Amino acid sequence: WMGQYSSRHQSYKIKCPRMVLPENWKRSWVSILQQSDYFVGHIGKWQYWNFMPEQLFDWAQIFEGYHWYPRGDKEIHGSTLARMHAVDFLKQRPKDKPFALSIAFYPPKAVNDHNNTPGGQWFPTNETRKLYDNV
Which phi and psi (to 5°) does residue 61 adopt? Predict the structure, then answer.
C-alpha cells in the first residue's frame, strides 16, 4: 500500500504498523507526493489507529468496521459513502495543486467461517447483489 516492500519498513502485521512510523512514512508515496506539493487524500478503511490519517494525509474521511452506514432515515452502502466523499474531495481540493486520492473500499465477503454466503453487514449493494447469485 505504501509503495514499499515490507522488508524495508518491517510491517508484517496490522497490529504493528511500522510503515507509518515517521522514518518509514517519509518514504511513502503519500509523503513523496506531498513533498512535491500534491494535495493527498484518503477515504474509507483505515486499520492503523495508532497513527491517525488526519495527521498523515491532507484530507481524510475514514469509516471503519461496517458496510452499511446510517444516512438520514435510511442506510447507505460503504461504496456509496466512499463515492460521496470522493466527490467532496474533488470539490474541496485546492484547484491550483495536483492531487492524489486513495479510496479503500470494502469488498463483499463472507464473515462466517463455515459457509461462503455474505453475512450480516457484509452484503453487497442491491445493484450488484445479482452478481453473487451463483457464487
Answer: -135, 105
DSSP output for 15-84 = TB-GGGSHHHHTTSHHHHHHHTT-EEEEEE----TTS-HHHHSSEEEE--S-SEEEETTEEEEHHHHHHH
83 contacts 104 by C-beta, under 8 angstroms: no
- The low-confidence residues of the chain, meaning pLDDT below 70, are 1-22, 47-51, 107-123
Tell me which H or E stretch contains 7.
Answer: helix 6-9
- What DSSP designation does 101 have? E
d(Cα 126, Cα 121) in Å, to the nearest integer? Answer: 13
pLDDT tens-digit readout, 27-50: 788 889 999 999 999 998 876 666
